[in-house]
């Protein structure tokens, strides 16, 4: 067994216990009259104002992925891992265009999930279930990624190292059991409340880290000199292992990854859940302007990868797991008690999004699979019960995912999910502005994008894995290396346009559209919103 | 967006200056960030950080300013449209401010 740092461990457990209590108490927070409705459990009653939404979305989008994988990528490759920063800069202006419309139409018609909207807009069960299943599929690896974050922390704390597979992963099982229990009982209110603690901890840790650690290491100038030296040494394939700026051959990849990921960000069911839980259209807009406060934090976090290099983390260790770089940096540099605080930030940073993601996936299953195909006459109370159980199953699925797959590729899990979810963007975003696209064409485009993207990703090998080892490859026709997801998205769009023209010429049935033009502009306080159906009772 | 909306008298046109300006505000950060060759270099450094890093970090607050401006522009524009259609729908309410824009 490794040495266990008991001071850090105690602080970590104290925070963990505190948020667990908060998670269970959350069911009493802003309690509504009809707690049995799915929009109560699954959307917090659609009541969150600007600040709660800000904390919720921040806790939702900036996950353990932020804490572990982004600096890990920077640690391993340098500049190309920094694409997360332009990605989160681009995302908000981009989604500012269409999220307010999604909020309005969902509010008027009581939609709980993106697939609900697709169903209502195109009158197509097939398209709706395709969007729903893609959402569930993309969310699973993302939840798994949160587990990798917790695992990395536990690993560096010195627990869960040896013994058989069960003992090794026991702390992970416990953390997840607790998470599952309070999500089950409190729904979206639990992560919304815990997000306050999580974000406060994260800000404190990051600000301390980017000031205190460079001081101990002799300043940023010295830090980047050390990084330059590491990257100039040849890696396994004889080429330099990384660089401080993106070279000409990597610039397309950098830009397409940033753009594709930005577009995908608010296609994720959990992001949509956070948006739909807000109480007004302008709450959504205001948040797009204040969310970059988190992007700044993300940028500073990414720099921690360089600090880890300069601090000599993993130096000389062959095949060092870069996912451990940042937890190890904290353990090496901070006094024990603050290491505990930092690890609590990562651990809770994994729990909040994992809870929201499992709720979002559960909403999708309940609304768009269970109610749509299995039990169309389910009562709102039944819907809520099914969603609660589904949230448990989704988490177990993610646990299996993480136990069976290689942890070195955590960031690629997430990017594979991003690739899939991006394929729902044509139906969703275009649908918010126009009904021009034909539902069958959208379905065909989606299928082409999914198959192409998965097939291309499968063919990429890396040092750690034979398949799904990366997310960039040559873009056909352009000859530059770019993000597979974005190429698949363009292909998806082209197929949808061409087939729409063909199907319209053939006068194929278009399906009913239950939304009206004014629905997309409705604001809280409008008549249409006041008279909206109770979400869980819609349809 | 609302291309075939029947404009109430006094409402801004569908393509209003505020909407165009808001669109530009949203476009700027996207274009700047996607133009990777413009910032993929190490000098000039700032406090030990290579240009590549501090330039992108600097654009985080700048993008927030642009998006925030777009929000204010759109809010005014929407308020004006609402006020105009409210006046058109209920002409019995004199004294109601036509622009409704409280910024």
Overview of this protein structure:
The complex is a heterodimer of chains A (539) and B (103). With 539 residues, chain A is mostly helical. Chain A has a domain at 6-27 and 62-408: Sodium/glucose cotransporter. Chain A has helices at 6-25, 38-43, 50-61, 64-77, 84-96, 99-109, 114-122, 125-157, 165-186, 189-217, 219-232, 251-265, 269-276, 281-290, 292-310, 325-333, 336-374, 380-404, 410-422, 425-433, 439-458, 484-505, 527-530; strands at residues 472-474, 481-483. A two-stranded antiparallel sheet of chain A has the order 1-2. In chain A, α17 packs across α18 and α19 packs parallel to α22 (484-505). The longest helix of chain A is centred in the middle third of the chain and has 39 residues, at 336-374. The N and C termini of chain A lie far apart (56 Å). The model of chain A is unreliable at 535-539 (pLDDT under 50). With 103 residues, chain B is an all-alpha fold. Chain B has one domain (17-89). Chain B has helices spanning 17-34, 51-89. In chain B, α1 packs antiparallel against α2. The longest helix of chain B is centred in the C-terminal third of the chain and has 39 residues, at 51-89. The two termini of chain B are 23 Å apart. Residues 1-5 and 95-103 of chain B have low confidence and may be disordered. Chain A binds chain B through residues 79, 82, 85-86, 88-90, 92-94, 96-97, 101, 214, 219-224, 244-248, 251, 254-255, 258-259, 282, 285-286, 288-290, 292-293, 295-296, 299-300, 303, 433, 517, 520-521, 523, and chain B through 1-2, 4-5, 25-27, 29-30, 33-37, 40-42, 45, 47-50, 52-53, 56-57, 59-61, 63-64, 66-68, 70-71, 74-75, 78.
């Amino acid at each position: 067994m490794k040495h266990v740092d008991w001071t850090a461990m105690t602080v970590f457990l104290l925070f963990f216990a505190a948020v667990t209590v908060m998670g269970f108490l959350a069911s009493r927070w802003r309690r509504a009259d009809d707690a049995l409705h799915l929009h109560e459990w699954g959307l917090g009653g659609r009541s969150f104002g600007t600040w709660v939404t800000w904390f919720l979305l921040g806790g939702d989008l900036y996950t353990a992925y932020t804490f572990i994988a982004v600096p890990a990528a920077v640690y391993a490759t340098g500049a190309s891992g920094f694409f997360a920063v332009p990605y989160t800069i681009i995302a908000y202006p981009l989604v500012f265009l269409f999220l307010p419309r999604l909020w309005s139409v969902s509010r008027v018609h009581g939609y709980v999930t993106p697939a609900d909207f697709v169903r209502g807009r195109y009158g197509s069960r097939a398209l709706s279930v395709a969007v729903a299943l893609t959402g569930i599929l993309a969310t699973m690896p993302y939840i798994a990624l949160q587990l990798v974050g917790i695992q990395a922390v536990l690993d560096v704390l010195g627990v869960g190292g040896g013994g058989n597979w069960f003992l090794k992963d026991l702390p992970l099982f416990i953390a997840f059991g607790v998470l599952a229990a309070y999500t089950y009982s409190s729904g979206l209110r639990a992560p919304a409340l815990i997000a306050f603690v999580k974000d406060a901890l994260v800000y404190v840790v990051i600000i301390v880290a980017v000031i205190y650690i460079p001081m101990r290491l002799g300043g940023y100038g010295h830090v980047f000199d050390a990084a330059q030296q590491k990257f100039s040494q040849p890696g396994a394939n004889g080429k330099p292992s990384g660089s401080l700026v993106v070279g000409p051959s990597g610039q397309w990849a950098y830009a397409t990854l940033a753009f594709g990921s930005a577009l995908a960000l608010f296609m994720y069911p959990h992001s949509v859940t956070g948006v739909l839980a807000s109480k007004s259209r302008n709450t959504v807009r205001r948040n797009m302007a204040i969310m970059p406060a988190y992007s700044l934090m993300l940028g500073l976090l990414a720099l921690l990868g360089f600090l880890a290099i300069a601090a000599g983390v993993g130096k000389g260790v062959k095949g060092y797991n870069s996912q451990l770089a940042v937890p190890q940096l904290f353990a090496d540099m901070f006094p024990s008690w603050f290491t505990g605080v930092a690890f609590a930030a990562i651990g809770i940073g994994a729990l909040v999004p994992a809870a929201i993601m499992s709720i979002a996936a559960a909403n999708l299953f309940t609304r768009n699979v269970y109610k749509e195909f299995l039990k169309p006459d389910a009562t709102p109370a039944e819907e809520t019960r099914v969603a609660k159980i589904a949230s448990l199953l989704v988490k177990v699925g993610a646990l299996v995912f993480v136990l069976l797959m290689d942890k070195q590729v955590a960031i690629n899990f997430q990017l594979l999910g991003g690739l899939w979810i991006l394929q729902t963007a044509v139906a969703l975003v275009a649908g918010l502005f126009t009904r021009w696209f034909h539902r069958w064409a959208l379905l065909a485009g989606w299928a082409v994008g999914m198959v192409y993207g998965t097939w291309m990703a499968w063919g990429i090998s890396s040092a750690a894995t034979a398949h799904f080892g990366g997310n960039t490859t040559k873009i056909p026709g352009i000859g530059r290396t770019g993000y597979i997801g974005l190429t698949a998205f363009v292909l998806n769009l082209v197929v949808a346009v061409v087939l729409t023209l063909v199907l319209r010429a053939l006068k194929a049935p278009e399906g009913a559209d239950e939304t009206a033009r004014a629905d997309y502009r409705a604001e809280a306080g409008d008549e249409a919103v006041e008279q909206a159906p109770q979400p869980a009772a819609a349809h | 967006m609302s291309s075939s909306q029947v404009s109430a008298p006094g409402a801004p046109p569908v393509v209003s200056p505020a909407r165009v300006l808001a669109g530009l505000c949203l476009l700027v950060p996207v274009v700047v960030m996607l133009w990777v060759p413009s910032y993929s270099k190490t000098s000039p450094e700032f406090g030990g950080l290579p240009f590549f890093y501090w330039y992108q970090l600097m654009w985080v607050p700048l993008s927030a300013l642009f998006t925030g401006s777009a929000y204010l522009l759109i809010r005014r524009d929407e308020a004006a449209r609402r006020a105009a259609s409210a006046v058109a729908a209920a002409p019995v309410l004199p004294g109601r401010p036509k622009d409704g824009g409280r910024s």
